[in-house]
Design brief:
Helix content: 10-25%
Distance between the termini: 28 Å
Number of strands: 2
Number of helices: 1
Largest sheet: 2 strands, antiparallel
Strand order of the largest sheet: 1-2
Shape: elongated
Strand content: 5-15%
Length: 40
């Protein structure tokens, strides 16, 4: 993202939105789930 400039300010705004569904199902399973959850 680029910096935005005002008359006396410099700022950078970044947003991260996460929506959680009403019913969450386990999508990953087995070795893939273990690797993703372990952060490998």
């Amino acid at each position: 993202m680029d910096y935005r400039y005002g008359s006396h300010t410099v700022y950078q705004i970044e947003y991260h939105f996460v929506w959680v569904a009403k019913y969450r199902y386990k999508v990953l399973s087995g070795e893939v789930a273990v690797r993703v959850l372990a952060g490998v």
